[in-house]
């Protein structure tokens, strides 16, 4: 958010959490739960996607992909404006409103009897998620003294990573043993409990900030939607057709308009000033590019395991769990390695390890369906590489940001990740659609895409992240 209430209060000398004070564990858990719910639904639905496609078999794959991408587009467009609106209206009140929207929309998703209703409900659910993400962090940070604010961000980020880690396995269990609708209905009791507990949170409000750029939100959402539309419909419309080229060109032009508007608006939808330093540029753009490969692979692997290896949803969901879990496990050691050896070597090493894991999947995918011999090695190595890249890029994006703008910088980094998620999902759908009848070929093409984007992150890091001297070993 542009100006978190506590950050502004600190600047004016208002009291916050006292140094050495322990934050209330239940309220810390509640704030982390808000992030957990929002990010869980970015991966849990992927596993249920094949069953959703069977239920709505009158809709094609590109259309149904909006069940996934509609969620990502709206979050990417609304993250920063939702945070600024929460500053003016009250973070606790906005957090509660986000929970209500997210929970009610989840209920509608679970009861949807048409693809159109499901997609529409997912958009509303994404609005709730876009409110939950920045407000949960803004409410969490004041519970910690200024010197420990990065601890709050680490806890919050760990909750998001854990959600991504258990999403595929949980989605597989729910979809296989009950129905795909359960991946949405499971949010209802969690949302109700969180809403009840949110009464204990302290309201944070700052009405002095500028009004969020609503037109910028609309333009950014339209831009991402048009680009995603061109990518997912390209195989059906043909890449050289006027519709495909028109959608991609219009999306690109709108994105330029968003950038120009953001450069002038007092409360822009994209914080361009956070990209002025080389490190911030590398951290945020690197996060976006790595998100492309990460989300493309998540969807691709589910479709590959269910269509080529013919595994059940629960088996496929559990099989896709190791990478994000390995990412969560490696994240903390990765930060220590970056402190010791510098950010750049860790990011480049992580990208190379990730590429190695992808090559192992490329090799194992053509073998017999054997989880231990032909799938787990590549999946675990990929997750390890991602665990080295994600937290370090996030730390690079936040490095040098003054405490009063930590929430803004963190939300901006999350927005860049969501931009990558939109592109990654759209590209995976486009490749799979183009390779209809050849699931192995489609999967391998997506893995090559993943390798190219991981390599681009390494190159970008080498060009933008300033080399820092390794700290002395303790």
Largest sheet: none
Helix content: over 70%
Q: What is the number of E strands?
A: 0
The parts where pLDDT drops under 50 for at least 5 residues are: 1-16, 468-474
CATH architecture term of the largest domain: Up-down Bundle
Query: CATH homologous superfamily of the largest domain?
Result: MFS general substrate transporter like domains
Q: Under CATH, the topology of the largest domain is which?
A: Growth Hormone, Chain: A
* Count of helical regions: 19
Strand content: under 5%
What is the ordering of alpha helices and beta strands? HHHHHHHHHHHHHHHHHHH
Count of all domains: 3
Alpha-carbon Rg, integer:
21 Å
What is the general shape?
A: globular
**CATH top level class name of the largest domain:** Mainly Alpha
Mean pLDDT: 83
> Could you give the distance between the termini?
36 Å
Structural class: mainly alpha
Can you describe what's shown?
By secondary structure, this protein is mostly helical. It has 3 domains: 188 residues, MFS general substrate transporter like domains (Growth Hormone, Chain: A, Up-down Bundle); 51 residues; 201 residues, Growth Hormone, Chain: A (Up-down Bundle), CATH 1.20.1250.20. Helix content is 77%, strand content 0%. The chain has 19 helices and no strands. Helix 8 packs antiparallel against helix 15. The longest helix is centred in the middle third of the chain and has 30 residues. The radius of gyration is 21 Å and the shape is globular. The two termini are 36 Å apart. The N terminus and C terminus are likely disordered. Its main location: membrane. One of its GO terms (biological process) is response to antibiotic.
